[in-house]
Fold:
Amino acid sequence: MRTQMTRRDFVRWMGMGAAGWAAAGRTRDMRLRAAEKPVRKPNFIIIFCDDMGYGDLGCYGHPTIRTPNIDRMAAEGQKWTDFYVGASVCTPSRAALLTGRLPIRSGMCSDVRRVLFPNSAGGLPAGEVTIAEGLKPQGYATGCIGKWHLGHLPQYLPTNNGFDSYFGVPYSNDMDRVAGEGRQAFFDPKVEYWNVPLLRDEQIIERPADQNTLTKRYTEEAVRFIERNKERPFFLYLAHTMVHVPLFVSDAFRGQSPRGLYGDAVEEIDWSVGQVLGALRREGLAENTFVVFTSDNGPWLEYDQHGGSAGLLREGKGCTCEGGMREPCLFWWPGTIQPAVVHDLGTTMDLLPTILRLAGAEVPADRVLDGFDLRPVLSGRGHSPRDTVFYYRGVRLYAVRKGPYKAHFITQSAYGKDQPVAHDPPLLYHLGNDPSEKFNVAKAHPDVIAAIRQEVERHRTTLVPGEDQLAKVIKKG
Ligand code: MG
Structure:
């Protein structure tokens, strides 16, 4: 640091007079104090919904579901139109989000069972590095609230995967069914039909969980987490149980939406987003917190009006068509993220490298990551480095997107009993002018298909499938 006045300083001082010099000195002092103060690392919040479709939010075009808080988040931040998840069902999608890797690599997908169940013996392998584990060495407080679904046995719970605390339901809210008549149970759901546990850290504190108040209680926990950790950097993973069937809402939201119970449940999540962003503003943390809002997979269409909508996208949950894996996605960080509607490609797997780099943390270098650093897009200074999306169903690659084109090598209905159908040449759609995947243009573009085949070859050379975690079942006796 320079301590002596140079000749040039002296001349300037003479020119500006003593008052001006004093003002310049104050400015310089302020700068120095800013430089001395350690730069506070950003906070991160991922709000992850369950089974919400591409068309279920006001800002994505839903005509009757009211989402003013989420719409404001979109207007103040970035709304992505081409953002994907790592799988079309819960467990593998969540594994992809938290590890930045396709679930085929961690073994968190299977052709035996599509997700984990209450009698599952497997879970996220200890060798995987979650976002929370990546942030811990940087001094982050880490909290997980909501649906986990990456293994309910103690060794697989959030508290053994980098999170300091956990509050939530460890798997899907339609599991542990003990009463109710067939599908009708979902269309007139009662809390007592599903004996799902509510956990705090590793202990069951309520069973069956009162699902009516889950969204409300998750939100209250989230606000408390923010308030409790406002003096240090934090990472909050808030994974809502809603809007997965059976749908439940608290009293204040029941019967309010023209879209029925599904709309009520989305509108309560919208309220929740307002509470979380409101807490950040109130605590003066908004300009130092990166918030992501998205969902794990598309709408569960076979539940009629209790399932959501993929808008103009084809199919929904369980399927490798766009409706199963393209999701609403918003990024919010006032003053840092350049507000925009973004058409670049992104996936939930990009969050791990993006977040870890924003935190100044190491990105795991000893394994294949499927995520890309999205910082250039967030700052508005560049484009997404991502050019391809791989659509897996179980352990098999069904489709690949490259740029605007998507090739389906295998197709199968979401939940039907039909067998997979292989296509050679693959079905080819241009998602720019045909987002609903209606018009096969394979014949006209053999060059595009050849380029996509090359991407598949390259991808396959990096694949070492993990041990199937979803096929493992707890042995009785
Ligand atoms: Mg889901």
Q: What stands out?
A: The domain at 390-461 is CATH 3.30.1120.10 (Arylsulfatase, C-terminal domain). Residues 1-25 have pLDDT under 50 and may be disordered. DSSP finds twelve helices and 14 strands in the chain.
